[in-house]
Amino acid sequence: GYLISHRQNDAFTVVNQLLEMGEHVWWPRDRSLGSHSGTGAIYVAAGAQTRAVLQRAAGERGISATGVAKVPAGPALRLRPARVGLWDRYGGATTSGWIRWILEQYGFSFELVYARTLDAGDLTERFDVLILPDEAVPGGREQPAENVPVDYRHMSGKISRTRTVPRLREFVEGGGTLIAIGDATGIAQSLGVPVKSALVTTSGGAEVPL
Predict the structure, then answer these.
(1) What global pTM score does this model have?
(2) N or C of the chain: less Cβ packing under 10 Å?
(3) Burial class for 163, CB neighbours closer than 10 Å (0-12, 13-18, 19+)
(4) For residue 54, what is the enclosing H or E element?
């Protein structure tokens, strides 16, 4: 097989290509593999198309792969494509747009998810990971449904603590991964996670933003 160092960001683009093709890819726990910097490496079993993909990646992206005669010893995590849902809203949210751009650049498959989809539940049947960017914070801006063309009304609505948070709790408790960024991290407290903002100080018993 082959070892691809984590040091190059485009290594993950190549990994996503290999996974989409059905190649077998592992993430060994040994961080000394494939790199002198201690960042670790990804192991790809040699398949029918593996060499051609890696040769093309070397020419187009400068990715280097090291051939090995046997599977690396020690524990390793088998990688599989994840079903990713990225929050957005009608008209588009800037923070969601930037994350979308990053996912596209590195070849991660994803689906845009709107508040109404989250409210409908059964999220574990469709997604492994949900990403809530900064503007997805509960109580954010909502476009009135009557102002939205009929064909796009499924994009209207906003995340609600009464409707959406219970569905997100079911998703997490069912094994899903929820990634919250920026102001959206405030949803952790609504989910009952024992965290609080580090950007406050106590003054006379009241929390004051720093």
Answers:
(1) 0.83
(2) C
(3) middle
(4) helix 50-61
